[in-house]
Amino acid sequence: MRSRHAEQGDVGSNLWQCTRDLECRNGRPTGHAMPALLQRVGDAHPFHCAKRDIVLIVTSQSAPAYWANRTVVVTGGNGFLGSKVVARLRSFGANVIAPRSTEADLTVAGVAENLFRTHKPSHVIHLAARVGGIGYNMVAPAQLYLDNMVMGLHTIEAARTCGVDKTVLLGTVCSYPKFTPVPFREESIWDGYPEETNAPYGIAKKAMLVHAQVNEAQYGQHFAFVIPTNLYGPGDKFHESVSHVIPALIKKCVEAKERGDDKVSVWGTGTASRDYLYVEDAAEAIVLAAQLRTSTEPMNLGNNREVTIRETAETIARIVGFTGELVWDSTRPDGQPRRRVDASRAERELGWHAHTDFEDGLRTTVEWYLANRAIAEAPPNH
């Protein structure tokens, strides 16, 4: 059964079909799609040459009309990524419900269903998760597996029984096999076991994908499933028990500079690589997926740039102003050897790609951390 909201959500796919054969001359689109595009945008303003820009122009015009007066539940909506998604939805006029875990503990049976029956959302964006870096994954694998598995199960089933039009699920790049060929393509997600330190978390997230696919097949439930790479940006967690690589390195370099240390110890060999995605870029993609995409085929979100941990640490040290030595502790794990995703599906179907320069994003993150250290370093609510 297709809802009225799901039908409207097909605009992005139809629009992209219109622009596939588009030719550009002098920075303006030409060909059969031009009248349809102008009609959709409602304005003959000059377009950029790139087809993705046409899609984004149309989406930016249509988003307020699409989201106005809709009710959206965003689980994890007060967190690092969720707060950006909530702000974006509210800017488009959506009525957003973003309960804290103390108000709606999704690991408890019945809580998600009660939440959805109370607020009757058209969309649920499920971002709530128990997360952490390699260190936390090593000391709390059972909690990472079970809590993420159970939250996903409860959210998906409650969305089904309550008639939610579309549920957006957030996967993880940690679900990919340890030695996935670079760049990671979505069809490779089932080709092997994840990197060991992140496997419990990655498998729990992959189980959500299976759950969504069987519910889509059996019940016609509507989903979008996105897989972001390593997120960073203002609002990240800097407490040492749960921080990921970028906040951990920023904190180490800032504190070493303040103490006047001549060296900083860094985990691993520095040879592992990551594909970093600025949090605002990720939020943009998630809201686009909620509006435009209805499919349980996973969709990668990444920056299309592979950066080694060594380059990451050296760049952060330079931005912070730490001039000492970076000492690599090879007794500590590197994690997955390489990461860079192929995000072409998101560009084709959403007209999206990441636009924040890595070093610019790092500078903004460092500035936020220095201005908000008490908040950034607060211990997690585990």
Task: Briefly summarize what is shown.
This protein is 45% helix and 15% strand.
Q: Can you tag this structure with a few keywords?
A:
globular, disordered N terminus, alpha/beta, six-stranded parallel sheet, 45% helix, Rossmann fold, two-stranded antiparallel ribbon, 382 residues, 14 strands
What this model shows, in words?
This protein is an alpha/beta fold and 382 residues long. The protein folds into 2 domains: 60 residues, no CATH class; 309 residues, NAD(P)-binding Rossmann-like Domain (Rossmann fold), CATH 3.40.50.720. It contains 15 helices and 14 strands. The strands form 5 sheets. The chain has a 6-stranded parallel β-sheet, with helices on both faces. It has a two-stranded antiparallel ribbon with strand order 1-2. Strands 8-11 form a two-stranded parallel sheet. α5 links the parallel β3 and β4. It is globular and about 60 Å long. The N terminus is likely disordered.
